Amino acid sequence: MFKIIGMSLKELLKITPDSINWKLTKEEFIYIAKALGAFWQYSYEVAKKGKAGFHALLKSGLHSDGFFYSKLLLEPANIRQIMARQLVILFNKLGIAKPDWIVGIPDGATELGKEVAALLGIRHAEMKKIDGRIVLESSIAADETILLIEDFCTRGTGLTEAVIEILLKQPRAKIIPYALYILNRGGLSEIEIPAEKTDGKKIVIKVVPVVDHKINDWEATVCPLCKDFGSEVIKPKATDENWRLITTSQQ
Predict the structure, then answer these.
(1) Burial 95-112 (b: 16+ CB within 10 A, else e)
(2) Cα 79 to the chain's mean position, in Å?
(3) How far apart are CA 162 and CA 140, in angstroms?
(4) 3-state DSSP assignment of residue 251
């Protein structure tokens, strides 16, 4: 084992994926994310000095004081492969049979899902986001098993949509009751899929992350960053400019 914390970005990008055979700690994961410019955290201390800056508007409509940007984290091939191997470590610890299919929930986990599927020797089911909606493009047979993989978990919105779409296309598909995540930032232990949208089936999926790191989020009406500091809200990954703004607004 070698030390990740303290490495330069250049050194991180030279790590060979198979050289990391342990489960990353939260500190190691956050260090990598920060080095890649893929993690932003609101500074309350700077805000108290009069520089309110921006804060994050999540796809759920909630406001947040932190944001991990999956695209930037998983863009380097070696880092993406390292994270895929982390998910394989999680899968092996579950002690369950290999599924027939792995689904990387789009857009953030599409390539990640392919990497995990290749490592486990399992087929990868194609899902794409078309006009903002997740669509299953692979043909799944009745009674085939499916393991879902996603980058980050906040409220389980993407997972819920993916499960509903799979069961719409193949009602007899068997969803494995675990979902693998790189990061659980929402504090959820499980996600319940609405029974009325899955033909009356009650589906509860356990959240299995490499790292747990709770980040605060609030309904817009009670957001303290708006109320106490006058910070403006912005969608962090809507554009490259938005990401630049949110990461530099308190500098």
Answers:
(1) eeeebbbbbbbbebbbbb
(2) 14
(3) 14
(4) coil
Which residues are within 8 A (CB) of 6 and not within 5 positions of it... i.e. 6 or more apart?
none
| Element housing 48 (H / E) | helix 44-48
Q: Give the closest residue to 76 by CA, choosing from 122, 136, 16.
A: 16
pLDDT along the chain (251 residues), means of 10: 93 96 96 97 96 93 95 96 98 96 94 97 96 94 97 92 94 96 95 80 93 95 97 95 96 93
Ramachandran angles phi, psi of 122, nearest 5°: -125, 150
What percent of the chain is helix, strand and coil (3-state, nearest 5)?
35, 25, 40
Angle at 76 between CA 71 and CA 81, to 5 degrees: 100
Burial 162-195 (b: 16+ CB within 10 A, else e): bbbbbbeebeebebbebbbbbbbbbebeebebee
Q: Does the predicted TM-score (pTM) go above 0.90?
A: yes
Stated as kind and residue range, the H or E segment containing 245 is helix 240-248
**Dist. CA 63–CA 71, nearest whole Å:** 20
Domain range annotation of the chain? 23-71+217-248, 80-212
Q: Two tokens at 128? A: 């794409």
Give ∠ CA 24-27-32 in degrees, rounded to 5.
75
Give the fold, CATH level 3, of 80-212: Rossmann fold (3.40.50)
Distance of CA 117 to the CA centre of its chain: 17
- What is the four-CA torsion angle of 166, 149, 211, 46, rounded to 10 degrees? -70
